[in-house]
């Protein structure tokens, strides 16, 4: 009996993996309608990445008529199923009031959930909310913790904001200003392709030479 159950589970996993792969191939060819069909099949079988991808197609009006409400439902399903990117995307939608009633408290919770699951862009977004006190209690140290987590995992914006905390926000945050750390984080963000950080990196490098 256990062997039969295992065979069923494996066959189901392989089936939705195949549907997802077919969806990706169709999308790469520009055959969006076929991609939608494949992603929908995989989503219905429990592939949360497919649900998230399908939600994006509803947002982008690719292969289906643009429908933000449908996208929100798909993102919510994917988020509930453990897809970190979907939680992060939902957070953006709730923060900005896109297709849902604006609710920054819900946005913060979604960013936190996504961050804990490894979506480090969401760590930066939540850090910004803590730094600015956007409908959550302002907490510069919590913001720095989140920016550092994002930066260490390769999220350039997190490095940039961490540099700003050491350089610009230090006076009002109570965090000790540290131009050397600020330069290092600006330069790190620049190296990762965050162009806005490059000027600050060069400026501080020249001052410290």
Automatic annotation (TrEMBL):
Organism placement in taxonomy: Bacteria, Pseudomonadati, Campylobacterota, Epsilonproteobacteria, Campylobacterales
EC numbers on record: 3.5.2.6
Pfam families, A to Z: Sel1 (PF08238)
Family listed: Belongs to the hcp beta-lactamase family.
Molecular function terms, GO-annotated: beta-lactamase activity
Leading EC class: hydrolase
Gene3D superfamilies membership: Tetratricopeptide repeat domain
Reaction catalysis annotation: a beta-lactam + H2O = a substituted beta-amino acid
Keywords on record: Antibiotic resistance, Disulfide bond, Hydrolase, Repeat, TPR repeat
Full protein name: beta-lactamase
GO annotation, biological process: response to antibiotic
SUPFAM superfamilies linked: HCP-like
């Amino acid at each position: 009996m256990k062997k039969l159950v295992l065979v069923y589970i494996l066959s189901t996993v392989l089936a939705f993996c195949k549907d997802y792969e077919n969806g990706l191939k169709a999308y790469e060819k520009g055959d969006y309608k076929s991609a939608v069909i494949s992603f929908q099949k995989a989503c219905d079988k429990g592939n949360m990445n497919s649900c998230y991808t399908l939600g994006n197609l509803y947002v982008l009006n690719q292969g289906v008529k643009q429908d933000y409400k449908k996208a929100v439902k798909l993102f919510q399903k994917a988020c509930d199923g453990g897809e970190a990117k979907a939680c992060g995307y939902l957070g953006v939608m709730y923060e900005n009031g896109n297709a849902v009633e604006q609710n920054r408290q819900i946005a913060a919770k979604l960013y936190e959930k996504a961050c804990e699951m490894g979506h480090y862009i969401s760590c930066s977004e939540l850090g910004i909310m803590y730094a600015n006190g956007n409908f959550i209690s302002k907490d510069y140290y919590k913001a720095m913790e989140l920016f550092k987590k994002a930066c260490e995992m390769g999220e350039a914006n997190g490095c940039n904001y961490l540099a700003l905390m050491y350089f610009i926000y230090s006076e009002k945050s109570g965090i000790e200003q540290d131009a050397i750390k600020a330069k290092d984080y600006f330069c790190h963000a620049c190296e990762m392709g965050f162009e806005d950080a490059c000027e600050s990196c060069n400026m501080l490098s020249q001052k410290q030479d």
